[in-house]
Amino acid sequence: MRSLTMRSPLVRAAAVLPFGLGALLAAAPAAAAASPSPALSGSAGTAPVTTAGTTFLTATPLPAGRTAAVSASTGDYLYWAFAASEGQTDTVHVTVTLPPSADRHGAQTWSVEVFDGLRRRQSCTAGPQNAAADTGTASVSMSCALRQIRSWAEPWSGDPLPGTYYVRLSVADVPQQDLGLAAQVKLQVSAKGGADNAQPEGGELKAPLVPPVNAGSTAAPDATAAAPSAKPSAPASASAAPGTVEVAAPAEPESHWYSGLFSGWNTRWYWTVAGGALAALAGVWGYTLTRHPRGRRPAGPAPVPPQAPAPQHPQYRS
After folding, report:
1. Is the bond into 155 cis (omega within 30 degrees of 0)?
2. What's the rounded mean pLDDT across residues 88-102?
3. Pick from 227, 158, 149, 151: nearest CA to 191
4. Chain-centre distance of CA 206, in angstroms?
5. Enclosing H/E stretch for 4
6. Measured in whole angstroms, how far is the alpha carbon of residue 254 from the centre of its chain?
7. pLDDT tens per residue across span 238-254
8. How many angstroms separate the CA atoms of 318 and 309, rounded?
């Protein structure tokens, strides 16, 4: 009886142990979900961009409110891309930390330029675009304030329009021995204003000047590419390989009543010959009008008017 009494706590503990383990396992995911993870609690949305492109096509996108902190080599072209909407006035701020003075052999001149979606160089209204530094200067700062983004503009003008803009940072003058030295670049784009300040009023841009992103890259296997104005493409054939991207057919050009008159190389020749014949006829008709303005020439010879007799010398008189 005593042995049974002594075993009873052990039996109860063994019976309760599985339930306790189950409760602990069930509470573990809840505790993990309640405590924020380091990845989620970090400031990933405000972390600086650490890359830069070397051409317009490989320009690194710079989201709004983000800065770029890049380690670059002296002499490289660095490209970033940012979006600007109508009514905004964007300003690009660049700070370059130069290599140590002991490694440099002369002065350096850095330059920052801004281009729109059509790669037209935009003028700066304020800020030094170029900065020169001698061997004792540790860093240089540049800035470029763009004109206000217009809501629309004439096709021939170079006014800034909504869309993608490129920032290019380069060194314009540097000794040959200093090419390749490490430099630190910090770039930031600030914007003020909005759509309420857009000028001029009464117009609207048909489409923003946004070039294709990652031009030349292949689409994902499950992606479908279709133009907004394109007609629905024909259904994929049964013999198409799995994972193949079916691209919609391009939109057919709009036809008019005069479209067929100038289509085809034969038609162009016909119009050329007909135009030459008409030009020849017009030349003959114009010659006729200018050569005989009062009508045709008479059929017979014109009558000779009477002439007075010539006077005779006195010595020859009879």
Report:
1. no
2. 92
3. 149
4. 15
5. helix 2-34
6. 26
7. 444 444 444 455 566 67
8. 17
